[in-house]
User: Which sequence fits this backbone?
């Protein structure tokens, strides 16, 4: 299945005449796969974790955001694949559009597949299908090993995002509270919302 087919669900949920989100199809895979965590103030504030995999961004909604404490298991709900260009998306999505609200790139970087370090033939796609992903993040806010573990049946599957025990673990840190700004623009959600409102009033 090509990346265009994988993005059909993403495109079906959006009206690109109204939303500023990228339609996709123009991005190219990077030398090292990227990860992004987007802070998204929609109907409820949450974080969206996305991992570059086979030409798209595999995505999960993480209600409480990531933790640097290995004792904290964070729910991660799978969502539709997103285009690679989405890794740089910040802005305001109209409230009557799918996922309406404000979004910033809270953290971004590259990752490597720790499963492949143990078994050279084990791809990310195979780890995803098996429901057990182990990755090493190199972000600006998050780094070190993280595991994504699927629980439940196919129709009601949920994942858990867990910080692995390594020298990057820190139970005292709470980056979602202490580091609210975008790593791309340096803006907070509120500043993105205010800037969009100001630009809208200038145009009208």
Assistant:
């Amino acid at each position: 299945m090509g990346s265009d087919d994988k993005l059909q669900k993403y495109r079906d949920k959006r009206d690109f005449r109204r939303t500023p989100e990228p339609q996709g199809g123009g991005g190219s895979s990077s030398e090292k796969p990227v990860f992004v965590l987007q802070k998204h103030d929609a109907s409820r504030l949450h974080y969206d974790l996305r991992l570059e995999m086979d030409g798209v961004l595999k995505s999960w909604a993480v209600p409480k955001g990531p933790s640097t404490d290995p004792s904290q298991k964070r729910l991660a709900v799978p969502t539709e694949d997103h285009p690679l260009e989405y890794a740089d998306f910040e802005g305001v999505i109209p409230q009557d559009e799918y996922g309406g609200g404000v979004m910033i790139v809270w953290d971004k970087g590259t990752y490597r597949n720790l499963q492949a370090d143990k078994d050279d033939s084990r791809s990310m796609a195979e780890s995803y299908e098996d429901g057990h992903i182990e990755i090493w993040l190199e972000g600006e806010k998050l780094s070190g090993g993280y595991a994504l573990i699927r629980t439940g049946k196919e129709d009601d599957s949920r994942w858990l995002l867990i910080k692995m025990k390594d020298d990057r673990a820190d139970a005292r840190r709470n980056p979602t509270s202490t580091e609210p700004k975008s790593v791309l623009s340096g803006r907070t959600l509120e500043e993105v919302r205010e800037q969009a409102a100001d630009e809208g009033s200038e145009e009208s």
In short: The helical segments are 3-6, 8-12, 114-118, 124-130, 175-178, 189-203.
